[in-house]
Design brief:
alpha+beta; outer membrane lipoprotein receptor (LolB), chain A; 13-stranded antiparallel beta sheet; 17% helix
Length: 247
């Protein structure tokens, strides 16, 4: 009797673990993450600080950015300062991207093979792909790696062409915010970490207002600070027109 019990007892916990895990549907989780971040439109004022060496906080370059977004896939960014890149604009539209360079007056469409590059003149640790649009559900197929009382750890595999082989995302159960995303590539392995260091309620929404992209290969970092934002406001369609966004 005791012998049989010792064999059967661990099996109960194994079955219970499977049942609990099954109840945590990964698609429901990631859809909730997308829902928390989703707005019909937004306008944000931000600063971008690029640090050539992540441990050296004294030497950095600061840029002011105005960003518009419409739905999940469409965004427009304009660099206001410094003067050397003033007027540089990036349009992301349903997976395609264009950049306007004020120094030459030319528009360049970004090829898929170039989306792992940083923006010319801007540098830093955010690539064209990082600045592009799309929901988590649209861009990755997820599975649950780990679950505890406070958070889920999810692994995402790209559903379309990407410079990343996978991402590992932490999702808080309390509010479905993502305080950390790890980026991996086939060549470099664990390549970058995006860490949210501050959340604030802006216009009634809990939003990340300070985040750092750590480049583990280059040992550099880029900090983005959101100063102000408006949500669900009218935006001129010209900002999302490849023929007009730079005019």
């Amino acid at each position: 009797m005791n012998k049989h019990f010792k064999i059967f007892f661990p099996g109960i916990f194994f079955v219970m673990a499977i049942q609990t895990f099954a109840q945590e549907n990964v698609l429901d989780i990631i859809r909730k993450v997308d829902e928390m971040a989703k707005t019909s439109t937004s306008i944000a004022k931000m600063s971008m600080l690029t640090y050539p060496y992540s441990e050296d906080n004294a030497n950095y370059r600061e840029m002011k950015v105005l960003a518009y977004a419409k739905g999940d896939d469409n965004s427009y960014m304009e660099f206001i300062t410094p003067k050397s890149i003033q007027g540089l604009r990036i349009l992301s539209l349903e997976g395609d991207q264009w950049v306007y360079f004020p120094s030459t007056g030319r528009v360049r469409k970004i090829a898929a093979k170039s989306k792992d590059q940083t923006v010319q003149g801007v540098g830093g640790d955010f690539t064209y792909e990082d600045l592009g649009g799309g929901s988590m559900e649209e861009n990755y197929t997820f599975k649950i790696l780990k679950s505890d009382d406070k958070s889920w750890t999810l692994e995402g595999i790209p559903t379309k062409e990407s410079s990343y082989s996978k991402v590992i995302i932490t999702v808080l159960k309390e509010n479905y915010q993502s305080p950390k995303i790890e980026f991996y590539s086939a060549e470099d392995g664990h390549k970058k970490d995006l860490i949210v260091e501050e959340y604030k309620t802006i216009s009634g929404r809990l939003m990340p207002t300070r985040m750092t992209m750590l480049n583990l290969i280059k040992q550099s970092k880029t900090i983005v600070i959101m100063h102000d934002a408006q949500y669900d406001v009218p935006i001129d369609d010209k900002y999302f027109n490849p023929m007009r966004f730079y005019k």
